[in-house]
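Researcher: We're teaching a course module on how sequence relates to structure. For the next exercise, students receive a sequence and then see the predicted structure as tokens, so they can try to spot secondary structure elements on their own. Here is the exercise chain.
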Amino acid sequence: MANIEDYLRRIMQCSLESSPENLLHECLAILIELSGANGGSILGEEDPGLRFLFSDKEDLIGLPVPWDSIAGESALRNVFIYTHAPSDKRHYQGIDEQTARRTSYLLSLPIPSVHNSNQESGEVHNAGVLQLLFQENLFPEMELDQGNAEFALEDFKEHPVYQNRLKDIFLILPNLAFALEIVSLRQTTYQAIHELKNKLISAASWLSCLQQDLRHHNPAVFEQEDIREDLQLASTAAEEGSELAKNFLSFTQLYAPHFEDILLQDIVSETAVSLRAFAQTTRTDVAVRFDYGPPLP
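Model: And here is the predicted structure for the students to work with:
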């Protein structure tokens, strides 16, 4: 088994070369391996409850989970729960029905939000929940009282199972929180810009209707230059705004970077050519020169 430094190196490499979604998949795979679990999932908040965002079992992804479930309790009360699911009344049976499998032992951990350090009220907000599944009780150190054991973070850090088995997991959780935040921010931004685009397109359409109505009912209005200019400026602003929003939406969907080895001087040379062409179209007193010696690695 790799040591924690190797795992963190894998995560860093993934964060530089791939998307936030792939980073979450990589972190989940590492956490399953680190804990010795048989499987695991990441759940995020989505009204009116939680939803499976990532899982090693694809048939779970997208499945909603209510707040009165084990995951919901873990997120709302900010507690770590280790439980024998069949003995726990909070176990959401819809999970087993969806996967045609019976959940056995379950470890549910809240994923602290990256914003918690900025909160002065002391109220903790969680970015999501990590759940790890075990076929057998791999943590006999946890004496399950009435089928489950619950711990606050500070108390959990004092428990032998944390010191001996799960300490490294908490080095990975901030990466989960950061990636979840990026995914959520991108989704929220996309939705907001999408609505803004629709509003601007509507504004441009209604301005066109307004001009038609004015031409029909009071064509003399267009003899006034300032009114014509105001209408034109309003239409141009709405059209340019909607076009900007559409371009931004295209940008937010493009996050699939591909990396390959290339000579650095080729990149600089291409940039110099572009700058030279731009300079020639805008200024006559600007020259772009690119001098280099031996090829750079």
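Model: If you want an answer key for the exercise: Strands lie at 39-46, 49-55, 64-65, 80-84, 105-112, 126-134, 148-151. The chain has a mean pLDDT of 82.
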